[in-house]
Amino acid sequence: MNSPTTPSRPPLRSVLLRSRKRTILGVDPQKLIKYFFGSNASVAIIVLVLIMVFLLREGIDFLPTYQRELQTYRRAGLEFCDIIDQPLQRNQALSSSLRQAVSASLETLSKTARDWRDAAFLLKRQVEDKTARPRESLTQALEKTPPAPEQIEVFRRELGEASAAAAKALDYPAVFGTAEREQLQREFAALTPEVTDLPPLLQTLAAEFSAKDREARTKFASLVQAQEEFEEATEPLQEVVDELKAKALETKEKAVEFDVLETNRLRLLEAAATETDAKEKASLTKEAAESVSEAVNLEKSIQEITGRTAELREQVEKYAVVIEKAAAVLPQDAGTGAARALVNEVREGIPAHAREMRAAAATLEGWRWDKPVSIFSVIGAFFFGTQWITNSSWQDFFGFVPLLSGSLVIAAIAILIATPVSVVAAIYTNQFASEREKEMIKPVIEFIQAIPSVVLGFIGISLVGNLIKDVSEWSWLQWVPGFPIQERLNMFNAGCLLAFMAVPTMFSLSEDALNNVPRAYIDASDALGATKLQTVFRVIVPAGISGILSAILLGLGRVVGETMVVLLVAGNRIAIPDFSAGPGVIFHPAHTLTGIIAQELGEVSRGSSHWQALFMVGIVLFAISLLVNWCARAVARRFEPHKA
Amino acid sequence: MSAEPTAKTTPPPVVQVRDMDFCYGDSKALFDINLKVKYHRVTALIGPSGCGKSTLLRCINRMNDRVPSARVTKGEVLVKGKNIHDADVDLTQLRKQVGMVFQKSNPFPKSIYENVAYGLRIHGEKNKSVLDEAVERSLTHAALWEELKDRLQANALALSGGQQQRLCIARAIATVPDVLLMDEPCSALDPISTLKIEELMHQLAHEFTVVIVTHNMQQAVRVSDYTAFLHLGKLVEFAPTEELFTNPREKLTEAYLRGTFS
Ligand SMILES: Nc1ncnc2c1ncn2[C@@H]1O[C@H](COP(=O)(O)OP(=O)(O)O)[C@@H](O)[C@H]1O
Ligand SMILES: [Mg+2]
After folding, report:
1. What is the number of CB-based contacts under 8 A between chain A and chain B?
2. What pTM, to 2 d.p., does this model score?
3. Which CATH number is associated with domain B12-258?
4. What residue spans of chain B are helical by DSSP H?
C-alpha cells in the first residue's frame, strides 16, 4: 500500500510492480502460483478418494442384500436341503470313477470285437449317407398309393447303382481281410430301404461283440454288479431330497415374488403421498392396492420340509449302509492297472463319503429355519465362501475364495517366472553389458510395456496354449506333474504371459536400484581385490536388495491388477483350483478377481446383488493393490541408509 | 616429528616408481615421476588440489585401470621389485598386497564383522576361526576392538564417521597387505577423529608401509617420515619430511610451504 505519510513518491517501476500484484483478485500472485501447483497435486488425491467413495457406495450395500438373500435361502428351507444334497454330490464323482473302471475292464476283452463292429457300422452309415437321395425317392415311391411299379423299378435300379458305387469307393480299414471286404462291399451294394434287418456280416460282427461283452461281464461280474448297486443306492435318497428341494424352491419363489411386489407397493404409496395432482394420486394408490400378493407362511411351508427329517435321516442311513456294503464287496482285481487304481480309490473314498453323509444327517436336527443370519456370517460367506454361483435356478452364492485363489496362483506363477528373468537381466545390463548392449536391451525390454494386453491374450490363446500342450505330450517330460495337460487355457499359460508383462516394470526398477548403489562400495570392493562377480554378488546386489524387492512387489501389483490377459487365457473356470493335484494344479483353468468383473459386470442388472458383489470384488482388488504398493514403498525405505 | 630413518641398510624400496608418465585419454596427468617408498615408513604426498596426488596413489594398486583410456604411457611401477604391469601379475593378488583407504569412509552396508572379513572371504578364506582371529587382530590394529568387540554384528553404517573410517582401515589391513594407500583419509573427519587416525598412523608403520595423500601440511609433518611434493603433475621434491619442511631445496616447494599459493 502506498503509505500516505511518505512524502516522496516511490519510483515508477515499483509502483507498477506493486499495482500489478494487487490486480489479481487481491491475492499475492506468489500465493496464486503456489495454489495452482498445489491444486494440481490435490486433484490426484481427490480423484483417488472419489474412486474409493464410488466403489464403496456401489459395493457396500452388498452385505445387507446378500444377508437378505441368505436369510431367504435359510427360511425357505434351501439350506436344509443342501445339508444333504451337497455331500451327496460326491456320489457322482465316485460312480464316474467306477464306471471308468468297469469300461476299462470290459474293454480288455471286448475291445477288438467292438472296434470291428463299430468300423463296419461306420462304413454302412457312410454308404447310407452317400445314397440318401435315391433311397428317399424310392421310399416315397414305395409309399405312394396306388403304387407305380415301373417308377419303383427305376428308383430301385438307381439306388442299387449308387450303393454299389459308394460301397466300392469306401476306404476299408486294414482290420478287415480281403474276403471280408468283398463281402461287405456286396452287402452294402444290396442295401434297400425295405430290409430293416442288418446284413449277415454285420450281424455276425454285432453278435461277436455281444458275446465278448457278455463274456467280459461275467468275468468282471462282481465289479459290474458293484457299480450298478452303487449307482442305484442313491435313488431312494435322491428322490426324497428332490421332493424337498422342489418344495423349498417353490416357497422361495413365492417369498421373492412377495418381496418384489411389496417393495413396489411401498414405492407407489410413497409416490402417491408426495403427488399433488389428485387424479394421479388416485391412480398411484389404486396401482399400489393391486400390487399385493399373498404373504407366504414360511413357518407352515418349512414344517412340510423339516417334518420329514426323520424320513430323510433314515434314508441317509440306509444309503450309507448300502454303499458301505458295496465297498466291501468291490473286487480286488480289475482289468487294467488304471482300473485297479480307480477301484481302490473308490474303495477308500466310500467310507469317508458315508461318514460325511451320516455327519450331515446328524446336523439336520440342530438346524433352525428362523435362526437369523448375522452380518458376520455374511461377511464370512463372502470372504471365505468357496462357491461363486450366479444365475442359478437354485441359489446364487457369492464366495470370494475361488476367484482369489485363481488370482493368487496366477500371480505367484507370474512372479516366480518374472523375478529371476528381470533381476538377472537388470544385473547383466547394469553391471556387465557394454554401452552398446545397454542401448539395445533397455529400449527393447521397455517396449514390451507398449504391447496391448489384448494382443498378448491372442498370443496366449493361439501360440502359448498350443505350445504348452504339445510340450506336455512329449514322452520324456511325463515326470512333470500335471503332464500331459488337459486344457490349453490354464493358469500356467496366463502366468507366463503376465510374467512377460511384469518384466519391464521389474527390470527397470531393479536396474534403478542397482544404479543407486553408491560408487564408493564398488571402489572399496575393487580395492580389496574382488573380482567383478564377487563385487556384484557380495556388494552391489545385497546393497540394492530393498530396491529389487520393491520392484518385485510393484511387479506383483501390476500382475494382480491385469485383466485382459487373464480373461482371455486363464480358462475362466469358476472353482477353487484342485490343489490335491499337487504342483500340477497350475495347469488347471481358473477365474480371477479382475476377469470376473470384466466378464460379468456388463451383463448383470444394475443394483442387483450380483452387481453389488462384483463391486465388492472391485473394492477388495483395490485394497490389495493399495496394500501391495504400500509394502513396496515400505520395503524400499528400509535398509537404505546410504540414501539417508 | 617421527623417527628419522636410522639405518641406511633398510630393505629395498617396497614401491618404486620409475620415469612414469600417466595419461587420462589425451591429457597427461603425471610427468616423469620417480619415487621410492621405503619399507615400514610413512610417505606423504602433498601438493595443491588437482596436481595428481590421487592419480599417483592409484597407480600403485592400478585402481586407474577402471577408468577407460587411462594408462601409464612411459616408465614403470614396481611393488616389491615386481613390475605391476607385467602380464603375469594377478590384479586380485596385487590389490591384496596393496590395500587402500578412501577419502570418504565407505564401509559396506553389512555388519562390522562382515566388513572386516570381506577381504579374506573374497580371497577364499572360509575357516571361521581364521576369520575371527583376523577380525580381532585388524580391529585391534585400528584401535576399534575395545569399542566394538561386543557389537560385531551391528550394522557398520550405524558407527560414527571416525569409527567408520577406522573400520575401513581395519578392513584394508585384514588381508595383511605390504603397502597401505590412504587418500586424504581425514579430510571428511572432525579434529578429534583426525587425531585418532593420525595416532594410528604411527602404529601402522610398525607393520605396514604407508603412503598417504594429504592436503594438510601439518598433518604431513605430524605423521610422515618422507614427503613428496607434487605440482602440476610433476614431482618437484622428495625428501625426509623434516628436511623438506625446514629446508626445502626447490623454490616452488618453499613458495608452496609458505602459502604463496595453494
Ligand atoms: N577419471 C579421470 N578422468 C580424467 N581426468 C582425470 C580423472 N581423474 C583425475 N583427472 C585429472 O587428473 C588430474 C589430477 O587429478 P587428481 O589426481 O585427482 O588430483 P589431486 O588428487 O591431487 O587433487 C586433474 O587435472 C584431474 O582433472
Ligand atoms: Mg585427490
Report:
1. 67
2. 0.78
3. 3.40.50.300
4. 53-60, 91-97, 112-122, 128-141, 145-148, 161-173, 191-205, 217-223, 241-246, 251-258
